Amino acid sequence: MSHNTRQRRLAAQRACDRILSGSRPATMRERLADLAAGGDLDGQPDFYGDGPVTTLEERVAELLGTEAAVFFPTGTMAQQVALRYGAERSGHPTVALHPLGHLEVHERHAYANLSGLRSTWPTTEPRNPTAAEIGALAEPVGSVVIELPLRDAGFVLPTWDELAAASAAAHSIGARLHLDGARLWESTPYLAHTLSEIADLADSTYVSFYKTIGGLSGAALAGTEQLASYARVWRHRYGGQVFQQWPAALSALAGLDRELPRIPEYVRHARTVAAALAALPGALVYPEPPHTQRFRLWLPYPAQALDDAALALAEDEKVWFAAGWQETDVPGMAMTEITVADPALDWTIEDVAEIGARFLSRVQDR
């Protein structure tokens, strides 16, 4: 997407009165004004990770029920440290990953290029590995990674029993269980367990602050005090010991207060929206019902035509339906990811059907 197209799309989405997928983009001024919700702006900023950063770390450790949590500027950095720790403690440089996992698809294989680790795939099925697949690994591994939810398989989650069994299987083969929990926040309704109960199954857990809860940036790696001490050393070595990160910390704290309590409502409504979208002509939704507040939608049109129709609907009618369409391996079908958040809560099944029909009429007219 060109810069001009992206700016035009953001401007159109921002001007919309109604939004089905995603949220209204905030300006920098609005984001700055929002920081006060996360703490006292008359207090002192952090100095290499104290102050509001420490407050955020303590809040995350409390939520996840871990001994400690360490703030990182990026999730990519946090995950590299977690996998290095597992490799060094076990003596095994191999990591059990899913080929659709974030570490393989979206982090440029940093675990291999920066840490000299290698991967093995317990499964290539579009879901997280089972206990049997973990137990059947043909070589020792330092860590087993479970991504909750597995985004590139459609934001899918295991059941609680499957997750608990996978944890036991990882530990039975002498491996650590690391949770890639960038969107762990929205996984609790489907798993029907608290954040701390989920994290208790793992040896380390990564969470993101800009995904789901709407922070500016940043992540945390949670686990034991020993892991935290190691993580702080390697955060510095990776260049993550930033002088001041109080805006990211305050926005994360505000997001935890504002968004975390609302996630069950978003997940419930995502099921309503998904059912309505699935009824559109030629539509496919996966998973149905959604496991989180996000899911995938396919429609039988070219991706560019769908993006053009979404932009036209937004600019002409001030309604944002869904954009970011991609061509797929399914002939004639394009796909996008739907995110149900606060702006979508007032959309009824009838609203989705009516506006969906108007959206599709624009695709057919082009």
Automatic annotation (TrEMBL):
Keywords: Pyridoxal phosphate. Belongs to the threonine aldolase family. Its cofactor is pyridoxal 5'-phosphate. This is Threonine aldolase. Residues 27-287 form the Aromatic amino acid beta-eliminating lyase/threonine aldolase domain. One of its GO terms (cellular component) is cytosol. One of its GO terms (molecular function) is L-allo-threonine aldolase activity. It holds the Pfam family Beta_elim_lyase. GO terms for biological process: glycine biosynthetic process; L-threonine catabolic process.
